[in-house]
């Protein structure tokens, strides 16, 4: 089975570097991240990398991107695995979901550009929010590569027609300081789920255990 890995906000394919070696047929791609990028453009970018049915793995905000791709090209998506990621609700945007949850640890950590098209995270807060249990080398890599994220995709709601009927699963990070574990549980309700005792960045803190969890959740998606 083929896997395609999608990063979360401000991240890129580099964040999956320690996970990919545990897969025989896997790739990680970047998403459009200019100020005019849209959620539809994210879906198109993913769909262009689906020559055959593929399991999509999305981290954090990447949960919206992989779901958008599944809505655009459901015949080429074998399943969706959310890694401490947002699971879209019909008719709601990511921003609406985040604001509706009572515990919002990311509040106050955003830097928004003058025309409100891009945001980034406060460099002084990112280690505590995302990488508190990650090796120093990995934290340095992230500091060197994090880039601004377009706001528009996160303010765009999805209409869910196909994705709820595809195999889906969730990896909850119980030490996450960015997306509260209770919020993750609510979004993962009804889905097969594995817990990891990790921060928001299990691809750095425990890449082998993350890969094992993905393989385990993917196994039922490859049958039939």
TrEMBL record:
The protein, known as: Pimeloyl-ACP methyl ester carboxylesterase
Gene3D superfamilies, sorted: alpha/beta hydrolase
Provenance organism: Gemmobacter aquatilis
Coiled coil (UniProt feature): none
Record-annotated AB hydrolase-1 domain positions: 3-213
InterPro entries listed in its UniProt record: AB_hydrolase_1 (IPR000073), AB_hydrolase_fold (IPR029058), Sec-Metab_Biosynth_Hydrolase (IPR052897)
């Amino acid at each position: 089975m083929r896997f395609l890995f999608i990063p979360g906000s401000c991240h890129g394919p580099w964040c999956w570097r320690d996970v990919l070696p545990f897969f025989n047929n896997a790739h990680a791609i970047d998403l459009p991240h200019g100020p005019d990028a849209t959620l539809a453009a994210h879906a198109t970018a993913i769909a262009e990398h689906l020559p055959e049915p593929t399991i999509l793995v999305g981290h954090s905000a990447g949960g919206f991107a992989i779901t958008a791709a599944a809505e655009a090209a459901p015949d080429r998506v074998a399943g969706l695995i959310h890694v401490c990621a947002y699971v879209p609700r019909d008719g709601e945007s990511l921003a609406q979901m985040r604001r509706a949850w009572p515990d919002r640890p990311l509040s106050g950590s955003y830097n928004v550009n003058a025309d409100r098209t891009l945001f980034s995270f406060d460099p002084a807060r990112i280690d505590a929010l995302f990488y508190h249990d990650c090796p120093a080398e990995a934290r340095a890599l992230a500091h060197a590569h994090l880039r601004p994220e377009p706001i528009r995709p996160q303010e765009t709601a999805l209409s869910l027609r196909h994705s709820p009927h595809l195999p889906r699963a969730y990896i909850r990070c119980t030490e996450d300081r960015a997306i509260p574990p209770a919020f993750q549980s609510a979004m993962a309700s009804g889905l097969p789920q594995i817990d990891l005792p990790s921060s928001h960045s299990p691809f750095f803190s425990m890449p082998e255990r993350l890969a094992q969890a993905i393989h385990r959740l993917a196994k039922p998606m490859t049958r039939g």
